[in-house]
Amino acid sequence: MVFIKTFGLFFITAFAELLGSYLMYLWLRQGKPAWYALPSIASLILFGCLLTLHPGAASRTYAAYGGIYVFSALLWLWFVEGQSLTRWDVLGVLVILIGASIIIFGKS
């Protein structure tokens, strides 16, 4: 159960960061309306708040979260942006997820 809660919170956190960043990207780089900045800012504030819900030392949490973020970003690339993943994307994220899992569950 702890595993599901931990990774679930990481994925929700990553979604908030990706959504906020993507909306800002759409406004500034793709010429979308300026009001895209408002939900972007709200989503990024939510992201910051969600990071505080993770147990443990902040820096260790950020390190582990980084791995989940990379995985989530590649899913975003595939589902939202419609880009195919390469075998290198998949291999790279597998290595990263192994590292993130070691950080998350390798408590001493």
UniProtKB/TrEMBL annotation:
InterPro entries: EmrE-like, UPF0060. It comes from the Bacteria. It is a multi-pass membrane protein. GO terms for cellular component: plasma membrane. Pfam families: UPF0060. It is found in: Cell membrane. Belongs to the UPF0060 family. PANTHER family: UPF0060 MEMBRANE PROTEIN YNFA (PTHR36116). This is YnfA family protein.
